[in-house]
Structures are given as C-alpha cells and as structure tokens.
Design goal:
Elements: H1 3-22, H2 27-37, E1 43-44, H3 45-52, H4 56-68, E2 72-75, E3 84-87, H5 91-116, H6 125-170
Helix pairs in contact: 1-2, 2-4, 3-4, 5-6
C-alpha cells in the first residue's frame, strides 16, 4: 500500500472520528468506518482492533453499534470461524439517516423540557423572568436544530440526485 493511500486512510479515520463525535457518538465509530471505507476485502475484529489501536472488547462493542446503525455489514463466519466486517454499500445514506434520528431525539428532549416547565402564572415575579428566559433559550435551541435538520434534508435530496446521476453514467 502506497504512502499516499495510508495518508488518505488516516485522514478519513481522523475526520470521521470528529464527525461522529460532533454527532454525539463515539469517535471510535468514525475511526472504524474510516478504516473500512478503504478496505478492499472484509476485515476481522482482531485486524480492525489492531489497526484502530483499540481492545477487541471495544472493537466488538463499536462494531455491534455500527452494524445496528446499518453503517457496517457483518459477514458470516468464514472457515476460520471468525466474523468479518465491511463498510455498508449504503454507508453515506445510513449515516445521514442516523443524523436525522439523532436530531429528532434532540427535538423531542427540548420539547419535553418545554412541556415540563411550570406555567408562568404559578410563579412569583423573579421566577417568571427566569421562566421566560429559559423558555426563550430552549425555543432558540429548538429553532437551530430544526433549521439544521431541514438543511440536512435538502442536502440529502441533492446527494440522492448526484448518486442517481453517477449510477446512470455507469450503465
């Protein structure tokens, strides 16, 4: 494997680690995906753990999560009775879907917090001011999440169109 290839693989592992961490997930998930994107053949748990520099237990837990998210495929054990893993064919779309789920969860939490605030009519003047300020911050936060989610939805449509164009070119 050439030096440029290794450099590119490391860059992808590092960048995806940051993206996953930014989405509130373990950066190890991103490092594993970054590694698997560059693999031409399935890798065993041991090989993945060695390359990402984590324990087999941490590798197993993170791979289980990636499989559940649809980002990684677990292949049936080979003749050596080990499980092997590959990046999902729909990795990018499934990652985007996971982002939507995460954002929907955040919106639900904010909405629940808003609902649990006491009604201002039962508060004294000082707490009513606190209530108004808190409500404003929660609503602002919800607006940011909502705008971001709509931006992602728009991006998802553009991505899908690009993928369809590439598919047509290949045929």
């Amino acid at each position: 494997m050439g030096a440029k290839f290794v450099e590119s693989e490391k860059l992808m592992m590092d960048e995806l680690a940051g993206i996953f961490e930014g989405l509130g997930m373990s950066p190890l998930l991103g490092r594993i995906c970054g590694l698997l994107i560059f693999c031409k053949e399935p890798l065993s748990l041991q090989r993945i753990s060695d390359k990402v520099k984590i324990s087999r237990a941490a590798g197993s837990i993170n791979l289980r999560n990636l499989v559940a998210m649809g980002l990684v495929r677990k292949l049936p054990p080979g003749t050596d009775r080990r499980d092997y893993y590959m990046i999902s064919n729909h990795f990018a779309q499934n990652l985007l879907n996971s982002s939507f789920s995460y954002l929907n969860g955040m919106i639900s939490i904010v909405d629940e917090c808003i609902e649990k605030l006491p009604h201002p009519s039962v508060l004294d003047a000082e707490k009513a001011i606190w209530h108004k300020e808190t409500l404003q911050r929660l609503e602002d936060f919800r607006d940011v999440i909502d705008v971001y989610q709509h931006s992602l939805e728009s991006s998802a449509e553009r991505i899908k169109a690009r993928q369809q164009t590439r598919q047509r070119r290949r045929v």
